Amino acid sequence: MGKIVALVSGKGGTGKSTLCVTLGMVLVRKGYRVLLIDCDCGMRALDILMEIDRNLVFDISDVIKGNCTEEKIIYPCEFCEGLFLISAPQNPDDLVCKEDMKHFTDSIRNQFDYILLDAPSGIGKAMESAVYNADICLVVANAEAVSVRCCVSVRRKLYDLDKNNIRLIINKFSKKEFRKNPDYPDLDSIIDETGIQLIGIIADDKKTIRSLRSAMQSVRGVSAMECVRRTACRIDGENIPLLIC
Predict the structure, then answer these.
(1) Residue 177: its pLDDT value, please?
(2) How many CB atoms lie within 10 A of CB 39?
(3) Nearest to 116 by CA among 2, 237, 229
(4) Per residue in 30-41, pLDDT tens?
(5) CA nearest to 24, candidates 230, 228, 210
(6) 0.85 cut: is pTM over it?
(7) Gyration radius from the chain CA atoms
(8) What is the per-residue pLDDT across 126-165, written as a single tens digit (0 to 9) for each?
(9) Which of 125, 115, 122 is closest to 150 using CA atoms?
């Protein structure tokens, strides 16, 4: 049975969607069959990052409404064989409720080793729908005060939803810039404030963001992708050290 992983964040701009795709790419490199589900209704982005947007016809709401079969909404990523996408609806009114999301993900989880759900930022109903059936929730934050404070609200919300398997990923991290940050003397102070166990630190690397297709060709050649690889290994249960770039 596939593991369902929800990526959440308290605020926008943390790089969560790009991280969702790169985690999927690295898990595929490990030999897994991986499905990404964009849960950001009305603000979807994964189809563009995966270069599927021009071919997109159906989204997850079409299956819920009975407009098409499950097979019609699952799109393969051309530059990463083994990685697939189900897109969010373009219309915000087509938000999939948490009960329907659970029923749907349960119905397809045996087809994939991992299902990664890209939740919308914040702690509203759309976020609840995304995490409702998740086995693990990854809270994505940046090493700055507003983002860290939002993590506290996200953690409390997840606890309210009976989600206890929660891990923190510090994304777009730069040691040089962090040294200039007067809010935190070290990374431990961020972890302590969020109250969430750390599972990964991802380097701030513009090369990865510029072209995920190119990053796929050299997972170990880009510092951010190596950080993602190690984080994916830790999610997969491996005892591997963090890489702090």
Answers:
(1) 86
(2) 27
(3) 2
(4) 999 999 999 987
(5) 228
(6) yes
(7) 17
(8) 899 999 999 999 999 999 999 999 999 999 999 999 999 9
(9) 122
* Residue 219 pLDDT > 70: no
Per-residue CA distances from 196 to 156, 190, 191 (Å): 10, 9, 6
Contacts of 231 (CB under 8 A, 6+ apart): 23, 169, 199, 200, 201, 202, 242
Task: Look up residue 40 and give its DSSP letter.
Answer: -
Q: Name, in order, each residue with C-beta under 8 angstroms of 143's C-beta and a sequence gap of 6 or more.
A: 170, 173, 178, 181, 184, 187, 190
DSSP readout, 226-243?
A: HHHHHHHHHHTT------
| Residue 56 token pair | 């997109």
Per-residue pLDDT at 207: 62
CATH number of the domain at 3-235, please? 3.40.50.300
User: How far is Cα 13 from Cα 7, in angstroms, rounded to an integer?
Assistant: 13
Cβ atoms 28, 20 nearer than 8 A: no
| 3-state SS assignment for residue 117 | strand
pLDDT tens by residue, 180-194:
888 899 999 999 999
Q: What is the mean pLDDT of the chain?
A: 89
What is the rounded CA–CA span in Å between residue 198 and residue 187? 10
- Domain ranges for the chain: 3-235
Query: How far apart, in whole angstroms, are the C-alpha atoms of residue 203 and residue 198?
Result: 15
Token pair 């499905």 is found at 35
- The whole-number pLDDT of residue 244 equals 74
